[in-house]
Amino acid sequence: MALQLLIPRGGMPNGHLPSLGSSNFFDIKQDFGYVDVRDKAHMFWWLQYTQSMQGYQQVPLIMWLQGGPGGSSTGFGNFMELGPLDVNMNPRNTTWLKLASLLYVDNPVGAGYSYVDSDDAFTTDVSMIAADMMVLLTTFFNSPTGKNFQNVPFYIFCESYGGKMTAAISRSLYQNMNSGKIKVNFKGLALGDSWISPVDSTVNWAPYILTNSIIDEKGFYKINEATLKMTKMIEGGMWKEATTQWGVIQDILETESNGVNFYNMLAWGGSEAGLKSSNNLKERMINRMIGALRTDKLTALMNGKVKKMLNIPEKVEWGAQSSKVFMYQAEDFMKPVVDIVDYLIQNTSLSVVVYTGQLDIIVATPGTEKWITQLGIYKDYYNATRQPLYDPYTKLTTAFYKSVKNFSVYWILDAGHMVPKDNGNAALEMVKRIISK
């Protein structure tokens, strides 16, 4: 079918909406719209132009992809992590717009403002997700707005399950760029606390929180026993059952730890999702994965003044389909993509970055370090020298990094799963280093 933008309520053709310029809502230039990526599948994008005095064609364009799957880039990523305003409409001092333009995409379809007309249009694996994104990016970069960014350095930054999606998307995008199917200056990707090897991440939960005094040895053995059951399911190819068992492990961990926050082990009582109890295992799992990304305040904002400003169709409710996005990915959820990351390092000219928050549990640093040992570049990486990164204001150590060839790893201190939210200064310094290479 023809690639076209579905522009709600009076938008301009060819994928372009007039920038709003200065307004009472945002004092930035921006564009936004829908792409019909498949029949009955509509994906929303929102572009914010950089605040840099150099101008948008002199700095990179960063696409941000949220996790879940089902989290919203336009919502959580924008207002809770790296956009120009926070959820209270106050300016964010550590917005990434200082360094680059930002393209938020509600991905997969069903996340945020993206939506499907019927359940058979939801994606079921990362291959479908990558295919949809190729339609969106091809359409975007061929639009009047996107043509201005064809030669601008393009990066994909992400978080959590967004990393799994980004790996698959990056492989497809690189191949399409080299074959001439899409005109884009794709330079690199940064995988933040990313769900690259679900087994390695989950297996490391018990020992990690034991050493941090969050459980005792009795709790350790309970979690470990449930984890072994999950790994046997995976070995037997029972992927969907393994996803369900993963939820069981979370239940045990939550009980044994007296409700630790999966996204930041020091933020006790800080997870709104943890307060939404349910007698249904699937609902509890979705609450933990998606609930933290759609807090009541954020939901009210996105379904109120933001929805009106962006001309979102009345029938579309932000985040209403996010639970189904997760459910339809259940078969693929526990499958690793380490091989894709390895391919990107070994066979492309892309800068491949992994960054991990020190206080994250759900994608804890030890699990990330475990799957890194499986990469072909690991021996050279192991022998490389780790360097400190300093906070620009306190001058204290705020992170460490190690680089070899086109591969880098950043350890972000004082941060959990949502690195830009927890340690904005360190995240901004990291971004500055990555895009300046």
TrEMBL record:
<dbReference type="Pfam" id="PF00450">
    <property type="entry name" value="Peptidase_S10"/>
</dbReference>
<dbReference type="InterPro" id="IPR001563">
    <property type="entry name" value="Peptidase_S10"/>
</dbReference>
<keyword id="KW-0121">Carboxypeptidase</keyword>
<keyword id="KW-0732">Signal</keyword>
<dbReference type="InterPro" id="IPR029058">
    <property type="entry name" value="AB_hydrolase_fold"/>
</dbReference>
<keyword id="KW-0325">Glycoprotein</keyword>
<keyword id="KW-0964">Secreted</keyword>
<dbReference type="GO" id="GO:0006508">
    <property type="term" value="P:proteolysis"/>
</dbReference>
<keyword id="KW-0378">Hydrolase</keyword>
<comment type="similarity">
    <text>Belongs to the peptidase S10 family.</text>
</comment>
<dbReference type="GO" id="GO:0005576">
    <property type="term" value="C:extracellular region"/>
</dbReference>
<protein>
    <recommendedName>
        <fullName>Retinoid-inducible serine carboxypeptidase</fullName>
    </recommendedName>
</protein>
<keyword id="KW-0645">Protease</keyword>
<dbReference type="GO" id="GO:0004185">
    <property type="term" value="F:serine-type carboxypeptidase activity"/>
</dbReference>
<comment type="function">
    <text>May be involved in vascular wall and kidney homeostasis.</text>
</comment>
